[in-house]
Design a protein that fits this description.
It is a single chain. Helices cover 37% and strands 25% of the residues. The protein is α/β, with parallel strands linked by helices. The strands form two sheets. It has a six-stranded mixed β-sheet. It has a four-stranded antiparallel β-sheet with strand order 2-1-4-5, covered by helices on one side. Strand 4 and strand 5 form a beta hairpin.
Length: 252
């Protein structure tokens, strides 16, 4: 797999399938270092499935994925584990453990991957929570805070290890417009401060236009990528009617 030195992620010939049912095939794209790439498309097209392939939860039927030029699909268990330590992932519901406080949730990856003392892990968890605007909420349980706050707490856990790459699955889903806008701003600030590369699954147009450097459109009709580029440019000059209809939803 040939990749540019600036490619943080390189996907080539990727085929996603459940048995004989092909979800998407011939997926080819790169994500540059410190870029925010949006995976977009109609419901059921395979956006979240692609994310699960990128983080190793699902294995491809064919094709390859590389990080910093290193083969991810065929990596040994030890090599893949090393690459996974550079990932931070947030899922739609935040995926927080309800029986743990916010600080304890953030400390989970630190307990798994570091030799820090309990005091140092607690201090680092407090710092990460403060970065997402949750200073003082360390001892709250997920059930005691709002949905938007739970999403921010999930983000604090995702950045606990200062990851090179952040993955988001519909981060704005279920949020009101103001909370969604604040989360978009937070993602931009964290990308700028951490220098992380960001991959986001989203169908929210406001978020796509606000934070996406580039986007790929998964075409459910043709089962492959039918467009890649800057979201506003694709909206203003659609490469095909389906992309135009998707990005111009709600326009009179």
């Amino acid at each position: 797999m040939d990749a540019s030195p600036t490619d943080k992620i390189s996907v080539s010939g990727l085929k996603m399938a459940y048995g004989d049912f092909v979800v998407m095939q011939d997926l080819n794209f790169e994500v540059k270092s410190a870029e925010i790439m949006v995976i977009m498309g109609l419901s059921g097209c395979g956006k979240s499935t692609l994310l699960r392939h990128l983080i190793g939860i699902q294995e491809p039927a064919a094709g390859g994925i590389a990080y910093n030029g290193r083969d991810f699909v065929n990596a040994s268990v030890e090599e893949r584990e090393q690459m996974l330590r550079n990932f931070g992932v947030t899922f739609q519901a935040g995926a927080l453990w309800s029986s743990l406080t916010l600080a304890e949730n953030v400390m989970l990856p630190l307990e798994q991957y570091t030799d820090l003392s309990s005091r140092d892990m607690r201090a680092l968890a407090s710092t990460k929570l403060a970065l997402v605007g949750l200073n003082g909420f360390e001892d709250y349980y997920p059930s005691e805070i709002s949905g938007g706050m739970r999403k921010r707490a999930g983000l604090a856990r995702a950045i606990a290890m200062d990851p090179e790459i952040l993955f988001f699955d519909e981060p704005s889903a279920g949020l009101d417009p103001l909370s969604s806008h604040r989360l978009d701003d937070l993602i931009l600030r964290l990308r700028d401060s951490l220098g992380s590369t960001v991959v986001i699954v989203s169908h929210e147009l406001a978020s796509i236009f606000a934070i996406g450097d580039r986007a790929i459109y998964l075409d459910v009709e043709h089962k492959t990528i039918s467009a890649i580029g800057e979201p506003k440019e694709m909206r203003d000059a659609p490469p095909n009617p389906r992309v135009g209809a998707f990005l111009r939803r709600g326009e009179s």
